[in-house]
Amino acid sequence: MADVVVLGSLNIDVVVRAQRLPTPGQTVTGTSVERRPGGKGANQAAAAARAGVVTRLIGCVGDGDEGPAYRAALAERNVDVDGVRVPPAVATGHALVTVDDAGENTIVVVPGANEQVGDAEVQALRLQPADVLLLQLEVPVTAVRDAVRQARAVGCTVLLNPSPWRRLEDELLDACDTVIVNAVEAEELREAGFDMARAVVTAGSGDVRWGDVVVPAERVEDPVDTTGAGDAFAGALAAALAGGADRRAALASGVRAGAAAVLHDGAQDWRF
């Protein structure tokens, strides 16, 4: 079986729960605060490892207590973290997350050590032709671009989840086998002339589409927290593809993982 290799972010999520999300300029009273593991790269790697494939995470954490602890906890969950570097005198990335009683959220990310991801991490990828490379945009886009170049030279599969969303040059998008986007992002890609047969389009509680393959969403009663649903979907999708699944089966795996993720607090299954 092929490996899933994730180049991406590791964050500490500071999660505040409140009855409702504040509007701009408004203060609301929260009901709890927790520190949880997060970052799109780590979340997706954890989801892929949970699906049972060999998963390597490449990225950076800070040198304070939380960074090494995070690295060790991921290793305990079967994520290979040999490629997670600990640069000196830099803090681990943080995300400030507010979650309301309906499970909806707002997120502000402070990159921290994730901004240090660069040549050393790209060299640590050590991609093989059968691997699936999974990327996001919480690390410098230069590193993402260089990782895609390495993947193309080797011939492995490249999945890009361009989140946080930004418009990327056509050359980078065209070099990816598949992009994973939501419905709003998909419309921007379509207007830019992107080949939508190469896009996995998610729609929250709606159907998921990959070209002409459509898989219905799983209905979830009383979701607890939607924070990690998209990352769980992406990680499980990558794992299924690494295991040889076709598009329909891979989408179904992603949908199941995303639905399961909203039934508990946080993007991963442990706390600091």
Rough shape? Answer: globular
CA-CA gap between termini: 32 Å
Total number of β-strand segments?
13
| Whole-angstrom Rg | 18 Å
What proportion of the residues form beta strands (DSSP E)? 25-35%
- Low-confidence blocks of residues: none
CATH names the topology as UDP-N-acetylmuramoyl-L-alanine:D-glutamate ligase
At the first level of CATH, the class is Alpha Beta
Helix percentage range: 25-40%
Mean pLDDT: 93
CATH architecture: 3-Layer(aba) Sandwich
Structural class: alpha/beta
User: How many individual domains?
Assistant: 1
Please provide the ordered H/E string of secondary-structure elements.
Answer: EEEHEHEEEHEHEHEHEEEHH
Largest sheet: 9 strands, mixed
Oligomeric form: single chain
InterPro entries: Carboh/pur_kinase_PfkB_CS, PfkB_dom, Ribo/fructo_kinase, Ribokinase, Ribokinase-like
GO molecular function: ATP binding; metal ion binding; ribokinase activity
Main location: cytoplasm
Family: Belongs to the carbohydrate kinase pfkB family.
Task: Give an overview of the whole structure.
Helices cover 32% and strands 26% of the residues. The strands form 2 sheets. A 9-stranded mixed sheet has the order 5-4-1-8-9-10-11-12-13, with helices on both faces. The chain has a 4-stranded mixed sheet with strand order 3-2-6-7. Helix 7 (229-242) packs antiparallel against helix 8. The mean pLDDT is 93. It is globular, with a radius of gyration of 18 Å. The chain is an alpha/beta fold. The chain contains 8 helices and 13 strands. Pfam families: PfkB. Keywords: ATP-binding, Carbohydrate metabolism, Cytoplasm, Kinase, Magnesium, Metal-binding, Nucleotide-binding, Potassium, Transferase.
